[in-house]
Specification:
By secondary structure, this protein is of the alpha/beta class. Helix content is about 25%, strand content about 35%. The radius of gyration is 17 Å and the shape is globular.
């Protein structure tokens, strides 16, 4: 068996722990130090792609178009680049996809050999990179995005970054609602189901559907995609 080769280590801000990047042949793995174990693996990305595919399908239905044109998409969390790559495939040449990544080393890893896994999406001219907290782009930016795709943790709780809890709070969801354009889409990746979070999304005035997606096509762990759409004539509270 080919042994794992350690490629890099990165500290998560605010004492969030340590990420380790490893490679075994063509397989890459990102692990969180301690009991949490593996966060991402380059063989398991079907649900990460579905996060973008489901959201962009909603936008196509909104625009009654086969292509998403002139859209502003925000991806929270670069990871191994699969969600970003799927979003780029789903939108046209006049759209822009901004990816926010808290950890600079993750961006550097994706600029190297790790980026080949998803086809080097950072090199796409429609990609804009924000190194920092995705919340920095969400606060005080009303109606800035057509879709917001969040894969910054294992679901609606701050696993790697406690500050991420704000995103999933009632106040955070209200801000996300205001940041979306009419009939914009919020899509959130989760390792599992969470009925209480679905209720919070509905209280924030989203129309909510929940999708179960396998880690690999037809097999592997079952992950949850929360798909929440803003109504066309919604009033934005506090804006």
């Amino acid at each position: 068996m080919i042994p794992w080769q350690h490629l890099g280590t990165a500290q998560i801000p605010n004492n969030g722990g340590e990420l380790k990047l490893s490679r075994r042949g063509e397989e890459f793995s990102i692990r969180l130090s301690g009991v949490r174990g593996e966060l991402m693996n380059s063989r398991l990305y079907n649900s990460e792609e579905a996060l973008a595919d489901l959201a962009c399908k909603q936008l196509k239905a909104r625009d009654n178009s086969a292509e998403v044109s002139g859209a502003e998409i925000l991806v929270g969390g670069l990871g191994m680049g699969y969600t970003l790559a799927a979003a780029l495939r789903a939108v046209g040449s006049t759209s822009q996809v901004t990816v926010a990544e808290l950890i600079p080393a993750v961006v550097e890893w994706n600029q190297g050999p790790l980026g080949d896994c998803a086809g080097q999406p950072l090199n796409d001219p429609r990609t804009k990179v924000h190194i920092g907290d995705v919340a920095e782009l969400l606060r005080d930016n009303p109606k800035a995005y057509d879709a917001i795709l969040l894969d910054v943790d294992n679901g609606p709780e701050g696993l790697t970054q406690n500050d991420n809890n704000w995103l999933y709070s009632q106040a955070g969801l209200e801000d996300l609602f205001s940041t979306l354009r009419p009939e914009g889409v919020l899509a959130i990746w989760s390792a599992g189901a969470d009925s209480m979070f679905a209720i919070r999304l509905k209280k924030a005035r989203f129309k909510v559907t929940i999708h179960t997606v396998r880690a690999r096509p037809g097999k592997g762990s079952r992950h949850t995609i929360f798909l929440a759409q803003k109504p066309w004539q919604a009033a934005d509270q506090g804006r």
